[in-house]
Amino acid sequence: MSSPPTGTVTFLFTDIEGSTRMWERSPQAMQGALARHDEILRDVIEERGGYVFKTVGDAFCCAFPTAPEALEAALKTQRTLFAEEWGETGSLRVRMALHTGAAEERGGDYFGPPVNRVARLLSAGHGGQVLLSLATQELVRDELPQGTELRDLGERRLKDLFRPEHVFQVIAADLPSSFPPLKTLEARLNNLPSQPTPLVGREREVGEIAERLRSEELRLLTLTGPGGTGKTRLALQAAADLLEKFEDGVFFVALATVTDPALVASAISQPLGVKESGDQLLEESLKSYLREKHLLLVLDNFEQVLEGAPVVGELVAACPKLKVLATSRIPLRLYGEQEYSVPPLALPDPRVLPPVKVLTQYEAVRLFVERARAVKADFEVTNENAPAVAEICARLDGLPLAIELAAARVRLLSPQAMLTRLGNRLKLLKGGPRDLPTRQQTLRGTIDWSYELLEEEEKTLFGRLSVFSGGRTLEAIEEICDPEGELDALEGVESLLEKSLLRREEGPNGESRFVMLETVHEYAREKLEESGEAEEIKRAHAEFFLALAEEAELELKGQDQLEWLERIEAEHDNFRAALSWSLERGDAELGLRLGGSLWWFWLVRGHLSEGRRWLEEALAKDVRAAVPKPVRARVLTGAGRLLVEQGDCEAGTTLLEESMAAFRQVRHNQALAEAVDNLGIARAYQGDLERANALFEESLELYREAGDGWGIAEILNNLGLIAGAQGQIDGARVLLEESLKVRRELGDKRGIVMSLINLAELALNRDDHARARVFLEEALTLAQELGDKGYIASSLMNLGEVALDQGDLQQAAALLEESVRSQQELGDKWYLYSSLMHLARVVEARGKSVCAARLVGAAEGMREAAGINLGSFIDYPRFERFWAAARSRLGEEAWEEALAEGRAMTLEEAVSYALEEEEAGG
Predict the structure, then answer these.
(1) Distance separating alpha carbons of residues 296 and 218, to the nearest angstrom
(2) Residue 530's pLDDT band (cuts 50, 70, 90)
(3) Which of 262, 332, 334, 627 could form a disulfide bond with 313, CB atoms 3.0-4.6 angstroms apart?
(4) Could you tell me the end-to-end alpha-carbon distance of the chain, in angstroms, rounded to an integer?
(5) Which CATH number fits domain 454-532: 3.40.50.80, 1.10.10.10, 1.10.630.10, 3.40.640.10?
(6) What DSSP designation does 125 have?
(7) Mind listing the pLDDT tens digit for each residue in 845-879?
(8) Architecture of the domain delimited by 8-182
């Protein structure tokens, strides 16, 4: 074809799978094979009316005027390649991708999102596979060649992080049709967020960052630069490109809303699902989880929590396979850190302008054009506006955020008119303090200019929106920022979205959440302070989230508990902001009420240290005479329970006793029931079952007087556990069944799972394996529905014991191994102890008595170090029977020697030993 097609074009991209290895193995043969490959592709492409506009190594980039022609070329090329005799190199397996869109053709090359999209689609495929985007599928589905069909592979997230792509595979009878799963973002564990727009340019920077992170020597890379340089977007794209290199996944940690360095570990643990338990600090739990993981952490916006950087250094030092990619305006200054200074986008010199076709190849101009077209589809760079576009990009120093903000104004202003306004606003020192870097001052000026173009109502709303942290729902915006409806919050939010001062994200249950880039957020906070209404808005924010927390308190124990857990988690940053404000301003009652309502959420979701710190700070701020006793007592209950869960039973018991006394004094029976219940749990953890039982009996009476079904079910469950631990199996069963009945009536799924697991353990004590399996299979199904990792692991452990008792060692080992891994990640030492003991039984059953004894010793050492009292274990009698039989077979002296060897192991060593021994035995 003599000239490249224009307008809507179908792109066909190809490359050879595994070509690097083939070159290393047979360089001479590969040279001849590649020449033949190129000949085949060029002949077929030209025959079908295609245009080869670029080749990179063995990759072909082609454009076709129609989609059917591109598909026919792909099919004929694949058939020809498969029919060819390749000799020494073996078959050349070529992957292909087709995508259709409107791209800009300049000098025989193509630019624009469709080109990037087809490249990403190609990277998802395998040699011999032909993939189509939805856009291409729509154009060929009614004109498929005979004997050809399309297989729907569903929506997939490509590594450009833009919207998901609906992918189709071409199926032809004479070509291979079975391939491994697509290499999309779903191929590895990750939480990389989708991006609202494609990345423009930055190919060199992404490649350099990825290359550094592939190096075995590099463990920590920090992308530095002022706000607005695109550090986050670069980090996300590099992480997506590297996904296949990290077998345990890539995880993004947003630190923009974290202002307390002490919360860095908590922020990192959240996307990983790591929780505290017992006496193990969260940092230690993270190290345990990450120690053997080949994983990449992306820590974004680190500059405001630099004092928390040592946590990252400790993780990198303790976890040899872990790599960290951070973004920060300032280096973290940690040992082994490498810094990558993110440059601005490539810029033209406005004093010596190149031709328009060349001008639009500069990254800054490309970004301006792409974002301008998002608001004005027919925008073009012309000879008339080219000087203004180049000047705008130059004055904005090539900063992506600044350029995006400017381009959003194309709907209202031509580039020439924009430049006039920009010239009045962007003077070097006007935008901020003199000691700020020049680019940061320029960016500030850009936001200032964008702000000045807002209507007065929009300016007011913009400043008020800064009171939020982490995100905003429309409901919260209307209640806090526009309670009288004077600003028309809905219209205002829509306008700020259009002007790139807000972004929309999807929250729990598909609810829209509106977020600000941190640089914009900082500016908005200043505007709120200047308005004179900051304290009023902050109080409204705190009171709104107090009301939400108090509403959630009951819902978290009801039939919609999962939805509410996700909702409160999504608003966690806003709760933190409300707590900080109330405690800083000395509003002890508001802070105590908020903490008292959130402690159950902190307990369930594993935010133990953070919750404890908030509650202790609130108690310290309290002037007792000024705060109602029940408010303070609720916080004492929560703080006491969190202390107990962390293994500090003595301090927790003191707080719970103070709480109980306060509620007795004010005769608040329902809250007293809760305090007594939690004190009973503390006593049970300490092994004082008689006192725990008496407290539970008192709590049950109080809950019944209050008509609190959730509390009644809770206490019946606890009484059943005490009875079971004391060997009263029949009595325990009656109590647990009654608890289960109430929980089913209430729709308390989490409670139902708890009761089912406890009933299964009772059934196992009576060797009723059929009944235990029924309970556990229902529990596992519900736990998976809830996404509750702890209860999933517990269900698997008990199902493993059922299989073990029934002689199915292979299934038992598989279930118990999965349970051990999960419990280790969660830091759940209570159930980890049981899983290790059951694995010891599997090892013993395989005839490895010494190894089994070592595992028993390791489990016992871990239990004693964690302060776990065996008297509260329902399954303890089963362990006693196992110990006695194993000791008898091995002999007392050998048993004690192996037991001592196991006790000397660390927790990590014990888990590794258990898994290694079982894998070797299996």
Answers:
(1) 12
(2) very high
(3) 334
(4) 62
(5) 1.10.10.10
(6) -
(7) 888 888 888 888 888 887 777 666 655 555 566 67
(8) 2-Layer Sandwich (3.30)
